[in-house]
Design goal:
Elements lengths: L18 H73 L8 H24 L1
Helix pairs in contact: 1-2
């Protein structure tokens, strides 16, 4: 379809093509617009799914780090507890040492409090 040129200095619009030529073009444009909307919605859904997965992986990673730190702390407490029991056994043979039972009970109590705190934090 040849385009009509505007004449210089003229404010007249070029003539419109007949409606029989415009209608198929409008239908084609509607189809393309519908396809674009579908693609946009599809991409938006993919983005929402990826964002949900990312949030979940970040949450899991934070939880895994917290669990690792708690386990390391508990392991250290167990080492301290066993060392205090060994010390108690060695101290019981020396008359000048303090009360070994008191020393181990204080250590055991502190270990128990720490373990309870770690376990309560893990449940949250």
């Amino acid at each position: 379809m040849p385009k009509a040129k505007k004449q210089e200095g003229s404010n007249e619009e070029p003539p419109l093509p007949p409606s029989s030529e415009i209608e198929p073009l409008l239908q084609e444009m509607k189809k393309v617009l519908s396809l674009l909307r579908e693609k946009i919605e599809e991409r938006a859904q993919q983005l929402r799914e990826a964002q949900t997965k990312l949030k979940e992986s970040e949450r899991l990673t934070s939880g895994q780090i917290a669990a690792f730190v708690a386990d390391q702390f508990r392991n250290s407490l167990c080492v301290i507890k066993h060392a205090s029991r060994d010390l108690k056994a060695k101290m019981s043979n020396h008359p000048q040492s303090g009360d070994p039972e008191e020393t181990t009970s204080v250590t055991d109590g502190r270990c128990k409090k720490s373990r309870t705190g770690l376990t309560a934090g893990k449940r949250k």
